[in-house]
Design brief:
Layout: H1 22-31, H2 41-45, H3 49-57, H4 64-74
Length: 75
């Protein structure tokens, strides 16, 4: 069973994220309520935090904090 948010690979604002897991969506909104974010689904599904962090750092619009909140909230 998937425990991860699925969304497109474009930046979306947190209130617009569609998630099968309301708890994850709430965690993401708490992490960055005023910023657009991108969920890198393949890196998160692999639970490869180092790779995901590296990808996030390549683009200053993204934030490592969002990934950390999302992964921590996924259990």
């Amino acid at each position: 069973m998937r425990d991860f948010v699925s969304c497109s690979r474009r930046a979306v604002s947190p209130p617009d994220i569609i998630s099968p897991r309301p708890r994850l969506m709430a965690g993401l909104q708490r992490a960055q309520p005023s910023r657009s974010v991108l969920v890198i689904v393949d890196a998160i599904e692999a639970r490869d935090g180092d790779r995901a962090e590296s990808i996030l750092r390549e683009n200053t619009r993204w934030t490592v904090k969002v990934l950390g909140e999302l992964v921590a909230g996924s259990g």
